[in-house]
Structures are given as structure tokens and as C-alpha cells.
Write a structure and sequence with these properties.
Blueprint lengths: L35 E6 L4 E5 L24 E7 L7 E4 L5 E4 L1
Antiparallel strand pairs: 1-2, 1-3, 4-5
């Protein structure tokens, strides 16, 4: 949804997505053309894709699937990678293991 849609909010707020009863909204990040989106699951899976590949949807829609999760897995985090931030990623687990990924 373009940011201009959020300029004139009333005190009641604005519905930005339809969410199932067993789901919740965890993150909301601003992205623009040329950015990449990185999402990671609690079981160590990751997906990186251009933000341009996500089609715009109406605020009342559920959105598009960004990652298919295995049973028992859940999204752990997501981030928007700007053009200048795309060279390397530092990946760190909850137990302190880390690695640099190109």
C-alpha cells in the first residue's frame, strides 16, 4: 500500500490487512523499488527476494505468501535490505552461533 494512504488517519486507526484468527501482524517495514526483503524462520530457513516482486494488494486483502513454512516452523524475523546494504549478512542464532553469508 502506498504511504500516502496513511497520511490522514483518524483516531480510530486504519485497517491495513485482513488477518486470520490464528495469525498476527509482527512487523511492518517500509520498502521501495530496488530493495530486497529477507525473511527467516525459527527452523533456520531463509528467503531473500526483490521487494518489486511483491504485487500491491488492497488493504482489505490477506497479502501474498512470502515463505511456505514446514509444520511447527514460524517466522523469526524479517528485514528490508537497502541497495547499499546488500553485500553481506550476519546471521546469528538464539544460542549465539553466527556466520557471514554472501
Amino acid at each position: 500500500t502506498p504511504l500516502i494512504a496513511f497520511e490522514k488517519l483518524s483516531s480510530r486507526g486504519l485497517r491495513i490487512a485482513s488477518i486470520s484468527d490464528n495469525d498476527r501482524l509482527n512487523w511492518c517495514h517500509h520498502c521501495r523499488e530496488g530493495d530486497d526483503v529477507l525473511i527467516a524462520s525459527s527452523m533456520g530457513m531463509a528467503s531473500r527476494f526483490p521487494a518489486d516482486s511483491l504485487r500491491p494488494t488492497a488493504r482489505s486483502s490477506r497479502g501474498v505468501r512470502s515463505m511456505k513454512l514446514k509444520e511447527g516452523d514460524s517466522l523469526a524475523d524479517m528485514n528490508v535490505l537497502r541497495g547499499e546494504d546488500k553485500e553481506y549478512l550476519l546471521v546469528v542464532t538464539a544460542m549465539g552461533q553466527g556466520k557471514r553469508v554472501a
